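sorry for the late reply, my laptop died twice this morning and i had to redo everyting from scratch. anyway the thing you sent over, i finally got around to it. pasting the sequence first so we're on the same page, its 661 residues, then the predicted structure underneath. double check i copied it right bc i was rushing
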Amino acid sequence: MSVELGHFALVLALALALVQSAAPLMGARIGSLPLMRVGEPVAITGFALVAAAFAALVLAYVQSDFSVLNVWENSHSAKPLLFKITGAWGNHEGSMLLWVLILALFGALVAAFGRNLPPTLKANVLAVQGLIASAFLLFILFTSNPFNRLQPAPIEGRDLNPILQDIGLAIHPPLLYLGYVGFSISFSFAVAALIEGRIDAAWARWVRPWTLAAWAFLTGGIAMGSYWAYYELGWGGFWFWDPVENASFLPWLSGTALLHSAIVMEKRSALKIWTVLLAILTFSLSLLGTFLVRSGVLTSVHTFASDPTRGVFILAILVFFIGGALALFAVRAAALAPGGLFHPISREGALVLNNLLLTTAAATVLVGTLYPLLIEALTGEKISVGAPFFNLTFVPLFLPLLVAVPFGPLLAWKRGDLLAAAQRLQIAFAAAALSGIVSYFLMDRASAFAALGLALGLWLIFGALTDLCLKIGIGKVPPSVALGRLAGLPLSMFGTALAHAGLGLTALGVVAVTTLEAESILTMRPGQVAEIGGYSLTFENLRPFTGPNYTEDRAVFAVTGEGGASLGEIVSSKRFYAARGMPTTEAGIRTFGLSQLYVSIGDETASGLVVRIWWKPLVTLIWLGALVMMVGGAVSLFDRRLRVGVPARRKLAVAAAGEGA
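ok and here's the structure:
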């Protein structure tokens, strides 16, 4: 019965989404405040209905209700409870329901906490959000219904794809969708402003926290997906330039540009047209990613669906929203004021440079991702664009950006002094350069690229610290005064420093593991020893093990360090899931400080077990840096100036004080 209620809740949610897309828009058009306010309770109720539908699907998974087609295709009664729950979104239909749930959540948050928004703007935002929800609810109900029944009900399910039966699936998709779908709010704000024909600094201040929240979640989602692929797929890489990986990276690049552009618009009323365009393009890239994952045009471990009907439906949604938004932008852009002027050497100029490099880098990734699809569609010829292309096009654009990042916060608004900023960064530059030089001579198999990358990563970290030190007057005022200033700094300044430092940490990890990792592929018998990265791994034995819904052979390796000191064991295994008839490789990983030993096993041969071993120096910095960036975004969101509703509370407080006087 709960399944039918879930289905009915989706139908009601669609009806409310249609009301939400029409009534507030009409109210804004004719100036009717009651009609404009209809969107608020409708958005909140619509979210509650979608949440109820999602809860019904999760309950069906927990109860192993195999009369539901979606549960039968993606679950098994012997599967652990956690993976029963995560299996609800480990498939096309369930993940689309999660997608719409998060979309409805953001709309409800705007309705509940957007009290400081002008009524007309808020009504238009909710209307656009309702229109997006309507399109995707129609898509779910007509092409991807997760509540379809089976008659008669099978006794047992087919089980979930084994590589998705992992804790990473509990974290990666929700985080990724919170970022992907979160940019819908920025898109709705942009379209609403174009409908109204009014864009100013206040608009940038309203849109910025929503963009920042989406960016932080997307950063975490990409990092979690990278780490999941790193340890679950057994290939030892953190990024493969897979087209679906690129599909999540594209909105991150444009969203980063949007964040910085919104700052310029808020502070200096400049880049208005560009900021609105970026808001449209960022969510458009999110929709493009949704199309690539679910249309069947790509074959990837990340993709969910290969049904052309679904692909055509999503393509129609993509064309309608992207084409409609860009058409509206083309009509309205000429009438919009371009904003204030500024000197090229200024903080605005630095942020414009940031935007140019980020958007150009995004364009190269987009071309490399779509070009093979275009060639195949036109000629039928299959080609692949891999890491060499992206490394040659993306890296040269991103390196200048990393060099320029520390300068931006030290330049003044409107007109800055580049020489003065460089002088303030002398210590940071000297420390980074010295570290690079020392590492070049001390690291085994040191390379110039490794030393340069190390220096660049430290340059970002030291630059972020320099900005904070200068703001609190380190070396110019007594320590007690400096600490007082530190405590009084706005949280957004700490958030910016953390985000830039996190980028530096990730750069350090990428460079270290790319240039300094060691790899060994060999055939081993019990008792044999492999040497790598200063460690010894002794193959002890191969043990059988039976899990809840799989069997596996576990290879146990004893790890010793210098002097023969025992450092524990690494266990790597080959699993077999009988219900699916699929094998998987479970890598064995042991972390030492910031570095890792990584062991993946292959098949047994007449001469022994095939073993692949990596020593990955500083590899954990890749994901630690992303976590620091995500924390930086969260810290900035706690800044009172970015909290939704704060201006409204201030106005109320001022009004109350005036009445009391």
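The longest strand covers residues 535-546.
thats about all i looked at so far, will dig more tmrw
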